[in-house]
Amino acid sequence: MKPGFLAKNPSVLAFLLVLAVFTLGVTVLSDAYGSGLISTSMVKTLGKTLCLCLIAIAMDLIWGYTGILSLGHFAFFGLGGYMVGMWLMFARTRDIVLSSAGGALPMTPQELSDAIATQIFGVVGTSELPAVWAFAGSLPAQLALVVLVPGILAFVFGWLAFHSRVTGVYLSILTQAMTLALSLYLFQNDSGLRGNNGLSGLQNIPGLESAGQDALSVWFLWASALALALGYMLASFIVSGKFGSVIRGIRDDEARVRFLGYSVESYKLFVFTLTAVIAAIAGALYYPQAGIINPAEMAPIASIYLAVWVAIGGRGRLYGAVVGAAFVSLVSTWFTGGRVPDVNLGFYTIKWVDWWSVLLGLSFVLVTLFAPKGLAGLVDLVQGLRSPRRGGTPLGPDDGALQEREAVE
């Protein structure tokens, strides 16, 4: 009987165990279900961090394993947030309109639609519901669009780019241009998504008004942890088999893999589309916890930050991407939240809120130069200190030759 996937990949089981213990620990220390040692705002921060870890896994798949430096994956992250945010804002506004409507006669569907449109889009000077909001009243439809819209965009863009044999830095520039174009379009008031006002009030979940934010924050933490666990297992399954060997081959020597008869473009397109969908799911869970989304969230700099997280954690290692995203996210919250006291040098005062971006950029440079394996390289260092598990017939004439059991393991 062949061992199962988890038996052959104990690191995945270890990751799931750590994630489960972390989620349980936060739950029992939260305001809603525990001792209250962790505030509701901190629970939301931790939940958002798990979502960032999920998109970091997507970035590691496309960059660390396939060798495509995409500077546009945060666009898919934002699109996922917009799709679920449309339903949240529409349903909440509908409840407000219905509760405030007076008179003996109920509102007609057209009157209700006009009132909702006026409430949502009055800020941009219109009272009509744009066509892109056609399915905003249906939660199943909007959840389907979380997957379909980013997935179709990634498929079309990837098909055009990969079949044109665009590679390297040129492909990175194209992905960044796509993100910039999408961001600039959404900044326009006639985009149908409220321009630079974005979508707000997303933390108020329709139908769950009786549940406080303390309970909702824990529920979203659970959902984010579940999504991260499933995303990690899916990514581990992909990279551990033949498919993973092929995409690593594409990363290391694309021409040789093509010469061996593999459809390189198809592999690239699959990974690009899959990671776009994973990024969108992460965004759909992130922005209800953040409470607001606007086009600035999709600026190209966000995708650059994503690449920095993966590089600091250690690209080409899924756990490295998770560690990098979690580390940078939490340290960023610490520095930019005013928790670190300013340093007065007499002639100049260092304000960490202003200097955090500089520290992040410096960390990226130092990791690139002196620790290319990132924080995940520490795991390799520890493993290198252990003696190999030896056994079986020697595979060479020397005393220290590789042995059968060691080679298999």
Verbal overview:
It is built from 16 helices and four strands. The chain has helices at 5-8, 10-28, 40-65, 73-100, 109-121, 139-163, 168-186, 213-240, 242-252, 254-259, 264-290, 300-313, 318-336, 352-370, 377-385, 404-408, and strands at residues 199-200, 292-293, 343-344, 349-350. The strands form two sheets. Strands 1-2 form a two-stranded antiparallel sheet. Strand 3 and strand 4 (349-350) form a beta hairpin. Helix 3 (40-65) packs parallel to helix 8, helix 8 packs antiparallel against helix 11 (264-290) and helix 12 (300-313) crosses helix 14 (352-370). It is globular, with a radius of gyration of 24 Å.
Helix and strand arrangement:
Blueprint: H1 5-8, H2 10-28, H3 40-65, H4 73-100, H5 109-121, H6 139-163, H7 168-186, E1 199-200, H8 213-240, H9 242-252, H10 254-259, H11 264-290, E2 292-293, H12 300-313, H13 318-336, E3 343-344, E4 349-350, H14 352-370, H15 377-385, H16 404-408
Antiparallel strand pairs: 1-2, 3-4
Fill in the keyword field for this structure.
two-stranded antiparallel ribbon, 67% helix, 4 strands, globular, 409 residues, mainly alpha, 16 helices, two-stranded antiparallel sheet
Strand content range = under 5%
N- to C-terminal distance? 18 Å
Distinct helical segment count: 16
Helix content, binned percent: 55-70%
* pLDDT averaged residue by residue: 86
Spatial order of the strands forming the largest sheet: 1-2
Q: Report the oligomer.
A: single chain
Indicate the radius of gyration in whole angstroms.
24 Å
How many strand elements?
4
Largest β-sheet summary: 2 strands, antiparallel
How would you spell out the order of helices and strands? HHHHHHHEHHHHEHHEEHHH
